[in-house]
């Protein structure tokens, strides 16, 4: 009897948390099918992550769920730093409702609601298949490149064991990752682990306290408080070295811990959803890829919560890898493109982790003497001009120079490795739209001058969409007739470009390289094309037809 050949799929994603569902959805939007294997049949019902920033909100936009997410999240007002007696040391407020990426800079949410939203969105992406009740038991990388990866799993419904083959396997299976072990990767400690108690509470009546994030800067009992939703609240308390979690979780002791935030609220109104002890670790894996087996999210890095970047870092992994893997699997790019995934994301994640460790030490570290010094200098910092913007701004560092980030930094140009902003800009009929909606799914070029033949050839090779920021007045929406005044969003975009005549953007909206603005009557882009041409064999394995051009109007800058 002939044995049945194992099922063969393009991509297997192991883990259906936010990172796994994000990378599967983004792959589908690039035309690549993905099979997601998950042990649980429904989202884990209790909240874990509660915050994401405007850069990560932009990733939700790339998946088409940003508007729905806005309905289940709430912007964070700012942050207060308190001493051990809950006196305010410093207050940092967010004055603008939206940041430079078109969304609130800090968004509070309930993770089970986000995971359900991500699952529901799969109905719009038939290339993604989610299979619950599946326990992956082994991932076996092939002995040589070019061969498929073997994935073994057990079906909890039937109890049967099965094997399938995949062109790529993405390990989004969390801190205790089986995929990480399968490629021989190990976690490296960047700081000493800390034990914290996390408390999630529901209260129908708003708590009578300031509606922002509270950070208690007390080395004896460091704590964080935040309002997560309309009726949900979270506290995090650092455990002392001589404490056990169960000492704090009986109802009387727990209510005493949160009492400073709940005056006038009866015990019956406070419904404790969960208490859990967590070990906050600062770790990064030494190896993120072996062949076509990759690590993403908590499988690759663990971040303390002080800057709210844990879940977001995993979604950044997903965005960084999805477009690269899609280009390789669809034959549009060389396998060498995949080498850039760890090179870019490992450095970025490591820097974010170190930032989180440093912020945590600054706010909660030291002994009594450190606390007294902190209580003295924090009020002074808060009084400095622009302190709120600096403290509350997105902490994501730029990507370092490499094959996909130009090493050439020019005065007055956007910095390669940074994200472009996202203002509202008019479409060809004058309707304002978020910039990303005009850029499409692939490479894009923003230009304020005609393209040189060399740059146009690069555009064709990359199949990049060209956005010409012409110096004309904008049309009134839906009329095609001139309106009075320049479009503010497009003018802001031209202002961001500075003295650059063109900016080449990657599919993840990162600035790859820039071109100098030419003299009147001349074309631009020879310098940009020369800088990128050396990378084109990796970025595009064969010539492509020219991408479509979209024209956007603005006044002369």
Question: What is the gist of this entry?
Answer:
This protein is of the alpha+beta class and 557 residues long. Helix content is 28%, strand content 26%. The protein is globular and about 70 Å long.
What is the terminal separation in angstroms? Answer: 75 Å
Shape: globular
The secondary structure category is alpha+beta
Strand content: 25-35%
Number of helices: 15
Instruction: Give the number of DSSP strands.
Output: 28
Unreliable parts: 479-485, 543-557
- Helix proportion of residues, in percent? 25-40%
- Mean pLDDT over all positions: 89
User: What's the Cα radius of gyration?
Assistant: 25 Å
**Major beta sheet, specifics?**
8 strands, mixed
Describe this entry's structure for a reader.
The protein is an alpha+beta fold and 557 residues long. Helix content is 28%, strand content 26%. The protein has 15 helices and 28 strands. A hairpin with a 5-residue loop joins strand 26 and strand 27. The longest helix is centred in the middle third of the chain and has 25 residues, at 340-364. The radius of gyration is 25 Å and the shape is globular.
């Amino acid at each position: 009897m002939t044995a049945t050949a194992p099922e063969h799929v393009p991509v297997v994603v192991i883990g259906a948390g936010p990172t796994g569902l994000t990378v599967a959805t983004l792959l589908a939007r690039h035309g690549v099918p993905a099979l997601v294997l998950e042990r649980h049949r429904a989202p884990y019902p209790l909240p874990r992550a509660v915050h994401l920033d405007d850069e990560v909100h932009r990733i939700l936009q790339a998946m088409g769920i940003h508007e729905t997410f806005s309905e289940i999240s709430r912007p964070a007002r700012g942050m207060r730093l308190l001493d051990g007696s809950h006196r305010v040391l410093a207050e940092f407020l967010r004055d603008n409702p939206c940041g430079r990426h078109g969304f609130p800079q800090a968004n509070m949410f309930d993770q089970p609601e986000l995971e359900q939203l991500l699952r529901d969105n799969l109905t719009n992406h038939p290339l993604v298949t989610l299979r619950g009740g599946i326990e992956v038991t082994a991932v076996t990388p092939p002995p040589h490149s070019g061969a498929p990866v073997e994935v073994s799993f057990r079906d909890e419904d039937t109890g049967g064991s099965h094997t399938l083959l995949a062109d790529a396997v993405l390990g989004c299976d969390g801190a205790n990752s089986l995929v990480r072990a399968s490629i021989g990767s190990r976690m490296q400690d960047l700081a000493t682990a800390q034990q914290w108690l996390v408390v999630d509470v529901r209260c129908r009546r708003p708590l009578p306290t300031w509606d922002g994030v509270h950070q208690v800067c007390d080395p004896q009992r460091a704590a964080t408080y935040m309002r997560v939703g309309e009726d949900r609240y979270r506290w995090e308390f650092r455990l002392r070295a001589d404490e056990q979690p169960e000492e704090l979780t009986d109802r009387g002791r727990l209510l005493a811990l949160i009492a400073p935030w709940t005056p006038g609220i009866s015990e019956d109104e406070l419904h404790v959803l969960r208490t859990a002890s967590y070990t906050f670790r600062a770790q990064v894996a030494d190896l993120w890829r072996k062949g076509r087996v990759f690590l993403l999210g908590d499988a690759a890095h663990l971040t303390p919560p002080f800057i709210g970047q844990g879940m977001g870092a995993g979604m950044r992994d997903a965005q960084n890898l999805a477009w690269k893997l899609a280009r390789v699997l669809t034959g549009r790019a060389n396998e060498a493109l995949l080498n850039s995934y760890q090179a870019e994301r490992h450095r970025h994640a490591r820097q974010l982790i170190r930032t989180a460790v440093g912020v945590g030490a600054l706010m909660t570290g030291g002994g009594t003497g450190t606390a007294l010094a902190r209580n003295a200098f924090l009020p002074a910092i808060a009084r400095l001009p622009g302190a709120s913007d600096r403290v509350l701004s997105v902490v994501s560092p730029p990507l370092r120079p490499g094959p996909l980030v130009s090493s050439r930094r020019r005065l007055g140009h956007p910095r390669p490795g940074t994200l472009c902003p996202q203002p509202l800009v008019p479409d060809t009929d004058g309707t304002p739209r978020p910039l990303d909606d005009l850029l499409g799914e692939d490479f894009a070029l923003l230009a304020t001058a005609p393209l040189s033949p060399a740059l146009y050839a690069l555009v064709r090779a990359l199949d990049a969409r060209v956005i010409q920021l012409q110096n004309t007045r904008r049309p009134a929406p839906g009329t095609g007739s001139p309106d009075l005044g320049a479009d503010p969003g497009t003018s802001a975009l031209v202002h961001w470009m500075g003295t650059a005549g063109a900016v080449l953007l990657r599919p993840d909206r990162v600035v790859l390289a820039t071109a100098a603005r030419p003299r009147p009557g001349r074309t631009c882009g020879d310098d940009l094309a020369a800088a990128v041409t050396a990378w084109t064999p990796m970025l595009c394995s064969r010539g492509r037809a020219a991408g479509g051009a979209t024209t956007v109007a603005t006044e002369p800058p």
